[in-house]
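Pyrrolo-quinoline quinone (Candidatus Finniella inopinata), 437 aa
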Amino acid sequence: MISFRSRLLITVGTCLLSLTACDKEKIPLTGERESFITLSTRLQPDANLANQVVSVPAAVVLTEWPQNAGNTLHSLPPLTLDLNPTLQWQTSMGRGVTDYQRLLSGIVIAQNVVYAIDSAGTVTALSLNEKQPKILWQQSTEAEHITGDALGGGVATEGGKVFVTSSFAEVLALDSKDGKILWRSSASGPIRSAPTCKDGRVFVTTISNETIAYDANTGKQLWTHAGITEQASLLGGASPAVSDNVVIVAYSSGEIYALQAENGQVLWSDTLTSAVRIDTVSSIPHIHAAPVVEGGKVFAVSHGGKMIAIDLKTGVREWQREIGGLHAPAVAGSWLFILSNHGDVFCLQKDTGAIRWVAALPKSSADDKESIYWAGPIIANDQLVFAGSNGQVQFVNVADGKPAKTLSFSGQTFLSPVIVNKTLFILNDQAELYAWQ
């Protein structure tokens, strides 16, 4: 089993590698070991909210999931799912993880077809129209002029096209019917996050913190925007969010920008970087989680231990919490739910950031030999849904954070769950897709 830390590879200067190589004698360090991914402080619920009832709007049936995190806003209502779902089927979506290849992006679904990119850079289209799913086509996105292993990328779909980002520094458009390559364009660097497409434009972010907009019909590059280059970052990244004519982009430097969709002009910016980086968390300010736009606010969380709410129009910061995370929060009604780096689930008041409750997900296996890492949440009915590296799906009540039911699957995953048409989907590390109804 490949560990979670091997997936969150840190890009560091070669001087550190050189120093390590010079050590001839291994001298054990004294003192207490501290987890690399941890929180500097423990946050407690606000006593003033003790009598506040946490509830979410009625669940709806979502028929498509065409973008990373569900849509261009990365914000979804509670979704309808059977109270006791059972496993319907499982099938392969391609090649799973290897020592050198990873699955960094989840599935998208449109017109009852699932699209996914595997660890080798092959896109698979899977029809859900039959009782048993059927592969419609597969298309390799490997660049002909480049040798090496694929490492990341993602997919999104709009207007009969499937847009693909590649670690080979390319963006492609495929025909959603047969997988034929309609166009392929170069980027300034590898891309390890999924694209976002809206209104005839495709937006991608490279590992060097550059956002590029392409014409969805031709692949022509429309504009670029560059942030600060960061020497240390996590593997993967945040897909841009798009709200009307505003594109929200987040970088591994901890910067977040609002850009005009038609020309890339900066409307406002903020940063989630700590003024002084004094610990393992704050030293990596990467905004790995996709920014969420909901109710006129932008919610963003960094690995470096900061979460903020920003007014979408003005860029004014409305509140801040010392919470770090790798996955986008779920926002519903008056509440926001976020999974922290430490495996704690926080319920916050959306408008103020005040904490209503904090709950801990299981952090290790029964024998304490394996750490458990979770992805999510999304909301099903009135429960939060998380997928874990322990091969379990954990449901948690939104009212109080108490655990509810669990489901099991083979292997492990570090990708968030997906719910479409009352069906729960989990893609594991071996690129096996599971479906419960």
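The longest helix spans residues 14-21. The chain has one domain: 4-19+52-436. ok done for today
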